[in-house]
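Why do we care about 3D structure at all? Because function follows from shape, and shape follows, mostly, from sequence. That is the central idea of this module. The next example makes it concrete: a single protein chain, its amino acid sequence, and then its structure expressed as tokens.
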Amino acid sequence: ILDKVAEQLATIGRTSGAGAEPETLVLVGGFARSPWLCERMRARFGERHRILVPPDPALAVLEGAVHFAYRPDVFVSRQAKYTYGFETAKPFEEGVDSTMRMYRDDEGDLLCVGRFGVAVRRMDSVRVNDAHPFRIVPVREDQDELDVRLYRSAKADPRYVDEDGSEEIGRLTVDLSGTVGRPLRERPIMLLFYFGAAELRVEVFDPATGGTSRVSVDFDRV
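And the structure:
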């Protein structure tokens, strides 16, 4: 088990952006009641990390959940476990994107469909409930609704939503009927990601009509 802990610490050090492993390790849960385990942790990691053990490590998990239920604002930021984003179309790159993904929109632009639009990358630190806005447009002038599909990926920089490691976690639809027939660039849609302490909330907003759609996904599921 100590080797697994060492591997996780090394991974955090590589991906956190800080360039170093965490300074403090807090041992909680039933196993942290074991004097032998605590002593082995101190012997293995005590020179590089401060080891903290609550008076009742098993109860600490429950108490933390209760505190969060009453004071969710105690969470200021969280670290993304996955890369989160949405399905989108981006400029087609010859020699990189398959022609099977090629699509020409109503303005003649050559696009690659099925691209992964990244909202937050894996291991990024995000402030709780801060908005992450994105501007998207439909691909057809006669398009009367926009179906937005949300994805997560175990990769830091996924290219496509259907590649290995990517998984759909939700979807939502916004009504575009009020702007049908307008040029595509005059039909912008705002996509807003909010990373809460316990859930991911996504909203789609049409500035031209005021149409809004939203969905929330528990982090227990994503």
